[in-house]
Amino acid sequence: MRLLADLCNMAMEVTYGFSRLTAYDIHLFREGKHFRLYEKLGAHFVDEEGFAGVYFAVWAPNARQVCVSGTFNHWDTTQLPLKLRDDDSGIWEGVVGDVLHGDLYKFIITGSNGEVFEKADPFARRNEPAPGTASIIWEHHHAWQDNLWQTKQRPLSFDKPMSVYEVHLGSWGRQQDNPQAFLTYRQLADTLVPYVKDLGFTHVEFLPVTEHPFYGSWGYQTLSYFAPTGRYGTPDDLMYLIDAFHQAHIGVILDWVPSHFPEDGHGLAFFDGTHLFEHEDRRKGFHPDWNSLIFNYGRYEVKCFLISSAIHWLDIFHFDGIRVDAVASMLYLDYSRKEGEWLPNIYGGNENLEAIQFLKELNETIFSEFPAAITIAEESTSWPKVSKPTYDGGLGFGMKWMMGWMHDTLAYFKEEPVYRKYHQDKLTFSMWYAYSENFVLSLSHDEVVHGKGSLINKMPGDEWLKFANLRLMFSYMFTHPFPKLVFMGGEFAQYKEWNHDQSLDWHLTELPLHKGMQNLVRDLNDIYTGEKSMHEQDFVEAGFNWLSINNHDQGVLVWQRQGKKPGDHVIVVGNFDQQTHIDYKVPVMQRNHYVEIFNSDAEKYQGSGLLNSGLLKPEIKTNSEETDEVKQFELAITIPPLSLLVLKPVAKLRRSAKK
Length: 659
Description:
TIM Barrel, 30 strands, Immunoglobulin-like, 8-stranded parallel beta barrel, 659 residues, 15 helices, 5-stranded antiparallel beta sheet
């Protein structure tokens, strides 16, 4: 057997002369304008012009030699050398025969000083799950069935509802007979998809599924920018899951991390014996928060690599958008750094000019090729125009997480109700700057880890009060302008904070209070997506109007959500105190009869069941003076403790019923 293997090794060789790269490809690559490099670099099966085998191509401009090693040549590290192109592109290439689908491989790179590195393919379509470090020869074979979904997609619209369920695939659920075993992508298609559909979310967002060596990073220490993690199955299995979501009319967003990457030896770090993808100076190239490396955004080839990655996920895997992680860390050269630990830009400032240009070009490219795509920035500072077009001086993102709303809201709800009258501005302040960006309201994974506790355990009071407060907070969120994002487990009030090593505590959903919270979130999604007044003008000032904002002592806020049609509106009444208000006068702008279409205190949510039944008839405001101005009206209603009510004009209900 050993002799046979030796003979096979002797017979295997690299064929030169064939290339998938044209002169135009090289021109675009060197100019920083080639954004589909995944079609050219990496490993690709070829059978044309007399060449049959796998074409390998890798960018390693400072290497002395590059060889391919794999299961197909018994991991010989010198037998299959690639050839450096003669066009100064720094790309090595060659065709190797007798390579099979599923074979493992690495690039063996000899640096200029003779040091040898074993590297995974930066453009690999599939990689070994950790602790393995090899890349895998792979061709995608999934037959997509989402044509209906794709044809219905239009340029990004800001008058459609967007309610996002954020998921970490490894801990949403586990195998019933083995709690340590992950659910596969295909099993998630059978369980996660119908669950998200039942709760009424319009989109799902995956924490990064790009391959990552350390599971505890949740995917944010990405090492392979073109290969999904193999922990849950093959790349085709992930396609199957996304396809299933689309067939259920649910969009899929990917968390994507271009801000940093880990230093693992088989990865991008010191790739060809030099700092190729990262900055050489650690003051620009090392991230102290995550002990990881920062991309050199000023290098054209690196820009091509990253933008090609984003396009790849939208193109090949049919993701509907990306949420870009840690944008603030990219924008500021002094992010999380002390004086002397960072280098200013050419003008002496702390702005990362190269990263800014990269982000602008990223968004321009995505929207030019995928007009219906969603790009969302996780950006936590006051950087202006993050979600405004680049032609208007913005970064070009479609949306931005509203981090201020999240911090203020959680801080407010942690207060005992008796003290909330001193902090009511935390609830109302968001509307003062609301329309400066296209915001997304997020209660994300970051708020339920690292000792922060679960959402339900952030609420004050005994068990009933905790649940009433959380019902109220979700209701406030879903009736506030802008799209919503809720991290898994919050929708049924999981007690424990999120643990990526365990499944969610699904047994809780059999208990009345937790089941009631699920019912609440389902109904909130139904109202948010079904009532045009709740989403149609989310991003314009005409869609929101305060009706009562100064009742600090009783903790009551009243606002109106307005659709595009003049008569299409709802009145929202929030009682953030523990007191019940009987015959409370709610101001309204029109003399319509109203009906209560939502009450977070309903018994189906395990509230006290204090509802307003029947028609609610407005009366002329009794203390208004006789003037030529339009008269104001009032509704006399009962407001349960720690509750939120939604009131809808009866005339609108009747018109809807006729339809």
